[in-house]
Specification:
Elements: H1 8-19, H2 25-31, H3 39-59, H4 64-76, H5 79-82, H6 90-95, H7 102-122, H8 126-154, H9 156-159, H10 177-196, H11 200-207, H12 210-222, H13 226-234, H14 237-244, H15 250-272, H16 276-282, H17 287-291, H18 295-317, H19 323-342, H20 348-356, H21 358-377
Helix pairs in contact: 7-8, 7-14, 7-21, 8-10, 8-12, 11-14, 12-13, 13-15, 14-15, 15-18, 15-20, 18-19, 19-21
Length: about 375
């Protein structure tokens, strides 16, 4: 129908202009070899450019000022280590979240509890325990990085709709999906190498977590409980630490894992409250949105169950009467319940502060268990 109203030369020019986005009457003037485009053609140009402008506005989620601020915050947040890496390496370090070690710590802490409790049950030497703690530390760093890379690959079309994640390497086009996939393969290979250093009983148990790791990014698209999938894989070390020390004590492993799972549900829900305003617009689901104003009530119930599970793990392992276990668990409980009570779920900065505070909370319990282990080595327990 348009062809009946517009000269063929105009249509040819318009079609070429379309491939380049917007175009102007100057281009048409050049195309008509010195002749002036008609009034109709000028109007066509104006309407087309207006349409394109409208589409671009729909695609733009944030203002230039917001994007500039996000970029500035990302650069400031690189820290003293990542910022000194070669420029080409920095996006890959960001894919692993090396500049944000909180996730690595939270992945590692349940590993440390399982290793030390397993060491006490088997009367392991200090050297063996230290080796496993170190090996799991490196494994936590690598596998957490792999998990973040998987997440960024799957979420690349969602991350640019949330201001906190708009500067992530793939979302900001600093790393291609192909290169990120190759990097993921390298991380997975290193992770498998670390797993190979563990006793054979750990292999099948470690590999069993991989399907959950790969499935987690999909959960936020279909369910309000992606935290359930994250918690399932993020605390796998609470199971893996025991066979690493040569014991398969399921009566201790399962309650320690369940307790850690519930802890992760709590702190990751608080974490999700940072982005709830953007998540609603982007169609991203989370427990923060599912629980809403009931979040603190639900978290208190989860925390009560969490420490009941930890107490059961202490009873079944025979470690409940250790001064470190009792004192450490008491401090742990106090800090978790206080966090739930005081956090302002409508303040993103306060949510982040509460979330990162879980590192110290978990470390206190690690120190307490290690204290009991040292008492055992010295013959006092």
């Amino acid at each position: 129908m348009l062809r009946l109203c517009v000269p063929s030369r105009t249509l040819q020019t318009v079609s070429k202009g379309l491939s380049n986005g917007q175009f102007s009457s100057k281009i048409l003037k050049y195309r008509f070899v010195g002749s002036q485009p008609s009034t109709f053609t000028k109007n066509l140009i104006i309407r087309w450019n207006s349409t394109l402008s409208g589409k671009n506005e729909l695609k733009t989620t944030f203002s230039e000022e917001q994007l500039a601020l996000a970029r500035e915050q990302r650069l400031k947040g690189l820290g003293p280590f990542v910022s000194k890496l070669p420029e080409r390496w920095i996006p890959y370090a960001e894919l692993m979240r090396l500049e944000k070690p909180v996730g690595t710590w939270l992945l590692y802490l349940p590993c440390s509890w399982a290793i030390v409790m397993g060491a006490m049950e088997t009367s392991a030497t200090l050297g063996q325990t230290a080796w496993m703690l170190g090996l799991f530390g490196v494994g936590a760093l690598i596998m957490r990085g792999a998990g973040c890379t998987i997440n960024d690959i799957f979420d690349r079309k969602l991350d640019d709709k949330v201001i906190r994640s708009v500067e992530r390497p793939i979302a900001s086009k600093r790393v291609s999906v192909r290169n990120a996939s190759l990097f993921l393969g390298a991380q997975t290979a290193v992770g498998m190498g670390i797993l190979a250093q563990l006793p054979a009983n750990c292999w099948w148990l470690g590999l069993a977590s991989l399907p959950i790791v790969f499935a987690y990014p999909l959960f936020k698209r279909f369910t309000y409980y992606p935290q359930a999938a994250l918690s399932a894989c993020f605390n796998w070390g609470a199971l893996l630490g025991f066979p690493a020390m040569g014991i398969m004590d399921w009566s201790t492993m399962i309650p320690l894992y369940v307790g850690s799972y519930l802890w992760c549900m709590i702190y990751d829900t608080i974490y999700a409250h940072q982005d709830k305003k953007f998540d609603i617009k982007a169609g991203i689901k989370s427990t923060a949105l599912a629980w809403g104003k009931n979040t603190k009530t639900v978290c208190n119930v989860l925390a009560t169950s969490q420490f009941a599970m930890y107490a059961l793990a202490g009873i079944n392992s025979g470690l409940i009467m250790g001064p470190g276990f009792i004192g450490g668990l008491s401090i742990f409980a106090y800090r978790v319940f206080t966090m739930i009570k005081k956090v302002d779920l409508d303040n993103p900065d306060d949510c982040w502060k509460a979330f990162t505070g879980n590192i110290k909370t978990g470390l206190y319990f690690s120190y307490a268990l290690f204290f009991d282990y040292l008492l055992q080595l010295m013959g006092f327990l």
